[in-house]
Amino acid sequence: MARNPEETRFQLQRDRMLTAAARCFNQKGYSGTSLKDVANLLGLTDAALYYYVRNKEELVYLCYVRAADAGRDAMQRAVDQGVTGFEQIRLYIRNHIECIVGENGPLAIMSEIPSLTPSHRDEVLEISRKHSKGFEAILERGIADGSIAPCDVRMTGNAIMGAINWIPKWFHGDAAMAERVLDEFPEILSRGLRPD
Amino acid sequence: MARNPEETRFQLQRDRMLTAAARCFNQKGYSGTSLKDVANLLGLTDAALYYYVRNKEELVYLCYVRAADAGRDAMQRAVDQGVTGFEQIRLYIRNHIECIVGENGPLAIMSEIPSLTPSHRDEVLEISRKHSKGFEAILERGIADGSIAPCDVRMTGNAIMGAINWIPKWFHGDAAMAERVLDEFPEILSRGLRPD
DNA sequence: CAAAAATTTTAATCTAGATTAAAATAATGC
DNA sequence: GCATTATTTTAATCTAGATTAAAATTTTTG
């Protein structure tokens, strides 16, 4: 055990593990990926994973927490940098997609919350709800400042988030495609928000 | 075995089964749902399902084929009824969402194609690709007839389809909500397509 | 370099869930 | 009502994959 450099070592391995797991989960789902799948991506044995997590459920849980952190971060930066609500939404879309298709590896899409422990489930649901609320709040500010046309913010949020969350289903790590998504999606998804 | 009324009986049960399975799969994924889960929804024993399908994989496969049929149908009706490309897209969105949130039970979202048999996988992928092409073709017609602004049809298709495919993740059979989705989504998702 | 701590592997165990076969029940045709 | 066919259940198998414990290996520290 250690102060900092070694804690970092453990953390780094664990992080690589979460990335590998996220890749598997996005592709084959929670139950569909075996710990062996994840371990293989890392050149390890399945049993080795238990050195880093208590069990498989905790692995998803950590993936989700990590994704939530990245999402919150993407939103925070967008709010900090954008002036109008519209600009903030656009920045957020771009930032978030960057997390998803970026080279630091994929983020897990939170698509199997039912598989979590009740306690973990509640926690993740709470975070997720907060995130949605944050998104809707930006929309509302945009409506207030006139940069976004009045709309059902809940449904609009669901639509935009859905389009983003679905990306891992068809995107598989092609760098050229990553560029294209990053260029096109923010425009496509925000275009409909503008007032006439 | 039978001519027609009995064939219908078998078909009907099988259809109920596909609906139940679709509900489970959408909620918990392929590997996440046991045959017992599906059987319970029908008031049956898991073993009884084998009277209708060869195995679990065939069950997903049939769910996917069924969803594909409904999707093709929704698109065909949209093309038949709409005049401009824009109108057709809008109609298609509404028709498809109606399949998803409608009362005849949910359609399976094709999110776990990797779990299929190679042969089934190829077939479903082919159908799915054709569907995407159909969607993009409508977009292109819309661009040609001036009802839709020029855009990257591939990315636009991915965005719109993604938003739709994600619906089952947050929609859970509330009738009032179904109305709301059906009212809002076609507008939200098509608004950005209009030329300036 | 040797001791201690950290990391990984090997080898079992344990269980849920898919699948099957045989038996039981229900429905239908005559 | 009887014989046949359709449907479902009961009761076993069988297997993949999660989990664990102990042993082996690697890394770190002094």
General description of the model:
Chain A is mostly helical and 196 residues long. Chain A has a domain at 56-191: Tetracycline Repressor, domain 2 (Orthogonal Bundle), CATH 1.10.357.10. Chain A has eight helices and no strands. The radius of gyration of chain A is 18 Å and the shape is elongated. The structure holds a DNA duplex (30 and 30 nucleotides).
Question: Could you provide a short overview of the structure?
Answer:
2 copies of one chain form a homodimer. Chain A is mainly alpha-helical.
Low-confidence regions of chain A = 1-6
CATH homology superfamily of the domain at 56-191 in chain A:
Tetracycline Repressor, domain 2
The total count of helices of chain A amounts to 8
Strand proportion of chain A: under 5%
Share of residues in helices of chain A: 55-70%
CATH topology of the domain at 56-191 in chain A: Tetracycline Repressor, domain 2
Topology of helices and strands:
Two copies of one chain form a homodimer.
Chain A: H1 5-28, H2 35-42, H3 56-81, H4 85-101, H5 118-144, H6 153-165, H7 167-170, H8 175-191
Helix pairs in contact in A: 1-2, 1-3, 3-4, 3-5, 4-5, 4-8, 5-6
Chain A binds a DNA duplex (30 and 30 nucleotides) through helix 1.
Key terms:
196 residues; mainly alpha; Tetracycline Repressor, domain 2; disordered N terminus; DNA-binding
